[in-house]
Amino acid sequence: MSPNLHPMINVAVKAARAAGSIINRAALDIESVRVSEKKANDFVTEVDHAAEQAIIETLLTAYPGHGIWAEESGREHGAKDSEFVWIIDPLDGTTNFIHGLPVYCVSIALAVRGKVEQAVVYDPTRNDLFTATKGRGAYLNDRRLRVSKRIHLKDALISTGFPYRAGDNFANYLTMMGEVMQRTAGLRRPGAAALDLAYVAAGYTEGFFELGLQAWDVAAGSLLITEAGGLVGNFTGEADFLDQQECLAGNPRIYGQLITILGKHSKFASAGEKAALRQSGNN
Fold it and tell me: Residue 278: in which H helix or E strand, if any?
């Protein structure tokens, strides 16, 4: 645990661990539950809801005047007009969880007037606790995190998430992946965006990109990265990306190089910017 934990982080950690206990207990029963797909999905929904309820109860007991924005229950809990809003994903990596693949996590962030100031990402399978407070650094358990020092794209390990929803532009994603694969040491798809971002902060990977993510997927991880010395934004490098469903992160050198590859695929890039990025990407 980092030496000077903010009181709000202590509460968020307590909430994350409570959710993690529910998830770990449920994970022991996955085999018996996965008789049919419907049962497995129902079961996982129960785990999602139970974990989310535990988080919300813990947070609102400590801070009854705060707002809540959670994946399963939206904004129905907490104060509606507070400047303090907790952004919660109770189980990020649900598909992995259903299959018993131990790559999933709990993600909790506190936004104050729209800016993330506290972050917890908790991996219950490894008991890995990532925390960050704005201006105080990012930590994994009691170790201070720094992003990777690799500066060449050819040496970089990049993580991503594949499109899986109806209406996703698969052809565009395959193009992006192809362009990144050819220039890097490898592309990974672990399956839990909050953990992907935490791993960039820890220096396990040099960068991450994905489309279609919601604020609860990226809020906590984004603060971990910036507090570990990295950068996070949309594909054109704009830092105000939480609601844009377009996320790019990395250490500063790799981040800049990924923008030259992915910027032309951004829905926020102008025609001129796309042409310039295409040109620089070809050089």
Answer: helix 271-282
